[in-house]
Amino acid sequence: MTSPRALIPMADYGHDPTETAVAYTVFKDAGFAVEFATEKGNSPRCDNRMIAGISGKLLGANKDAITKYNQMLQDPAIQQPLSWSDPNFSLSSYDLVYFPGGHDKAVRQTIDSTSLQKHVAEYFPQTRKPGAKTVAAICHGVQTLAAAEKTEGKSVLHDVTTTALPGAMESGIFWLTRPFLGDYYKTYGKGTENVETIVRKQLDHPDQQYKNSLGPGPFVVEDEKYNYVSARFPPDTEALAKRAVELVKESTKS
């Protein structure tokens, strides 16, 4: 039996190590073949501020996540990723596409890429049940999806139920850390909109479709019409990845 295939699109630098490596480990442990893609096929690295230094110790990944991240870096798949800007690249062969988040400004490479947006716009409709494709996203990864538009000019998320990084969390940590991290926690710079605001603007009925929680426990939102699951921030990663695995197995049953 062929192993399910998962793809993790990444910026060359800047994704959150927990949101990337913990999910990667869940997928591998479930028997998935995991591949990576960057814009030009450069081997990606996660945000070092979440791994080292004072910011890493106070706000970053825990020891388990860092261990998983270092193990992930040994995988030939991340050392030689695919290029989503390659004319022959396609998402069609993957059972799962997972979008991690991150605060570093370099992650804008995934959010702003018109070629990646095009691939997402072609892939996401295939997740509509009983479709066999699945998408999972967390934090700024949801913003990447929000930026991808269908042919009628609406985001692929326009009719889905989703969550993302809560505005209250993003604003709170921005002001808390601004004295020593500047505008680090605002990926597009001081004064720009929160991820939650950006995502809500792409929904047909945001008050009904956008789900929120400020609690510390794992929070994963699953859409009813699509094989799509979303989450907020690093502590949600494992639960999100495990539910994504379950969705893939459920949707690909013969």
TrEMBL record:
Annotated signal sequence is none
- Swiss-Prot/TrEMBL keywords: Glutamine amidotransferase
Where does the record place a coiled coil? none
- Matches recorded under Gene3D superfamilies: 3.40.50.880
Q: Which domain of life is it from?
A: Eukaryota
By its UniProt entry, which InterPro entries does this protein fall under? Answer: Class_I_gatase-like, ThiJ-like
Name-wise, this protein is Class I glutamine amidotransferase-like protein
Recorded source organism is: Talaromyces proteolyticus
